[in-house]
Amino acid sequence: MAGGAIKVEGGGRSHLYTGHTTFAVVMIAIVAASGGLLFGYDNGITGGVISMRNFAELFFPEELAAHDSSNGYCKFNDQILQLFTSSLFLAGAFAALVGMVTCKKYGRRFTMIMGGLCFIIGTVLVASAFHIAQLVIGRLVLGVGVGFATQATPLYLSEMAPYNLRGALNILFQLAVTIGIFAAQLINYGTQHIYPWGWRLSLALAGVPGLMLFLGALVLPDTPNSLIERGKLEQGEKVLKRIRGVDDVTVELEDIVDAVNVSRTIVNPWATILRRRYRPQLVISILIPTFQQWVGINAIIFYAPQLFQTTGAGADAALLNTVIIGAVNVGCTVVAILVVDRFGRKFLLIEGGIQLVICEFIVGALIASSLGTSGVGGIGPAKANAMIALICIYIAGFAWSWGPLGWLVPSEIQPLETRA
Fold first, then answer.
1. φ, ψ for residue 4 (rounded to 5)?
2. Cβ partners under 8 Å of residue 324, min gap 6
3. How many whole angstroms separate alpha carbon 161 and alpha carbon 380?
4. Taking the chain (420 residues) in consecutive chunks of 10 residues, what is each chunk's mean pLDDT?
5. Which of the four, 13, 115, 396, 398, has the lowest number of CB atoms within 10 Å?
């Protein structure tokens, strides 16, 4: 694999694999990537909904009344509001752990179905909420759906994709995430003035990608790897022939069977992954997603409207600026699809990391030079425009490096016995 990553089963004989990119693979990739669409939509919708006055009037009237727009560092100071935004990720982390078990025992397809179903239920709860308790419970259920989807979908795409296109097709997941974010930002911009139920419409439309994943997974086959792992060899071979478009899949099938036989010797996968031979994969699979989150992308995506208001933009202009960074996000993720197999994973991670650090440092310096330590003051037009440009460059760097590769690399470097 390009970029210096570790090869998985079949890496030594991949040149002997037969087949081509079939219509079935394209449709599978599109439907499966809807798992990324629902994750991206929820990320993109939250910050805009929080900034809507009709939402704040219903759930956080005291905070709205005490809102101090003069402080550039603290726009909202409410622990329940923080619980609303963070509850999804708490539930998602737990669900991802459960998803590891369901992916192995019941299959990638089953986990995707459950993810879509939970997301639909969570959407109904949050969109119909009149009390903060229902809102938080809905976010928790949404988090379960996100956890299942983000655990199963990259794995599903990695195992269904032809070996030579695995990188590009797997990045479809991240592309779907960025499209979901962009769609959410456009919808927020359009619903902000629909009073008093614009925020409900924004949250309710999250059910669209959830329904896509649920219905799509119902009609999709499970991966050959998962079927063979669960003792369904003939069915796995049939699916492999279908997605490769040829009848002779002997070499790839043998490699999958060999990997399954190795995985069946594993009694305790948690103890197995700690063994010395799997240590490089374990370290990489932990560090890359960790640093993907630590680069600060969630703060930018979640609170982009508030960040742009700090630069002096009004509510409308702030939401419009989030639409702009959403478009940059989508466009540069397409760039990643085009170049990931040409330049390699390692090069893109290094280049993107440098780009992110430089942009964040300069934006932080511009804010500090204008607002000091108190948060009181103003940011001039020149600095505000520079900040917006740097945030766009930051988003571009993330979109063609740590964004897609944070999902791609961990799913493709693990052998089958520890992959789920």
1. 80, 10
2. 388, 392
3. 50
4. 37 70 81 81 83 81 59 63 84 91 91 94 94 92 92 85 74 82 89 87 92 90 91 92 88 87 74 80 88 85 76 72 89 87 88 93 87 70 87 93 85 68
5. 13
